[in-house]
Specification:
The protein is mostly helical. 74% of the residues lie in helices and 0% in strands. It has 13 helices and no strands. The chain has helices at residues 2-31, 36-41, 54-62, 65-96, 100-112, 121-130, 137-161, 165-173, 178-186, 191-206, 210-215, 224-229, 239-271. The chain is globular and about 70 Å long.
Length: 275
């Protein structure tokens, strides 16, 4: 009886914690359909007769949402393509080629994962200015690729190290070269890790504000997070517009996660195996 009571109490506590986590999400979702006055006066109440889509139409027209969506999507997609190609090749080399150089590179790669991004921001801006990549989406792309490369390489090398050597040896016996072994044997098996890298890195790149606001001109080359931030002023904040922008900006990445979530869980487990 005591054990059952403890279990019920634990479940109620977890239910309370879950509701507490969902409260901010509930707040900004219903606020996206309210006027500024109702958000302040009735923060947690749903007033169906006053629900409006005006916030969404305002965001679409005045935030340059289509252009912001294109810029953010272009940066995210191009970054992920370069990131997956480079990190998978690097992971293949680290997992299969033995040598002092590769062991040192792997150690440096792991060490780079703990460096905070903000500590390198000033030097990255100065470097991008010298090589004419300041206020360029390609500058953002290259910096995102370099920053996410250590983690993705770590995942790929750990996953490939767990694959049996017999697969590679059989391919070499059949006359495959090293690149053929990578493309024909390893690459088809990398779907879980690739999905994991796409989701983890893609969410970070999609939601990036710090690099975009620092490196890009927000008026000419806006991104979604920079555009949403424009609704928060020094004296007045338009929460309804901001919440509507957050919902619109969250839809593409949420749809991506729905389709790739099974690979995400599998990839995290597989990538945890360290070679």
């Amino acid at each position: 009886m005591k054990k059952k009571t403890l279990m019920i109490a634990s479940e109620l506590f977890l239910l309370f914690c879950t509701a507490l986590c969902w409260l901010p999400i509930y707040y900004f979702i219903i606020s996206a359909f309210k006027s500024r006055k109702d958000i302040v006066k009735y923060p947690l109440h749903i007033i169906w007769e006053r629900f409006t889509l005006g916030n969404f139409s305002y965001v679409w027209k005045n935030m340059k949402f289509a252009q912001s969506l294109f810029n953010t999507g272009f940066i995210t997609v191009m970054t992920l393509i370069l990131l997956i190609v480079i990190s998978s090749l690097a992971g293949f080399a680290l997992s299969r080629i033995k040598g002092r150089f590769f062991r040192t590179y792997y150690s440096v790669n792991v060490a780079l994962m703990v460096v905070p991004f903000i500590s390198c921001l000033l030097s990255l801006v100065m470097l991008s200015t010298k090589i004419n990549l300041y206020n360029s989406v390609w500058g953002c792309i290259f910096i995102h690729v370099a920053w996410h490369l250590p983690f993705c390489t770590f995942l790929y090398s750990g996953f490939m190290s767990a694959l049996p050597m017999e697969l590679e040896e059989a391919a070499y016996i059949d006359g495959c070269s090293t690149f053929q072994v990578y493309f024909q044997v390893f690459l088809p098996l990398l779907a879980p890790i690739t999905a994991t890298c796409c989701i983890r890195s893609g969410i970070t790149i999609w939601n990036d504000f710090l690099l975009s606001s620092t490196l890009l001109n927000s008026a000419r080359k806006p991104t979604l997070m920079v555009g949403i931030n424009s609704f928060f002023g020094e004296y007045v904040s338009e929460y309804g517009y901001a919440f509507a922008g957050i919902i619109l900006a969250s839809l593409p990445i949420s749809i991506l996660f729905i389709f790739l979530q099974k690979y995400f869980i599998k990839g995290l487990t597989a990538g945890a195996v360290k070679g």
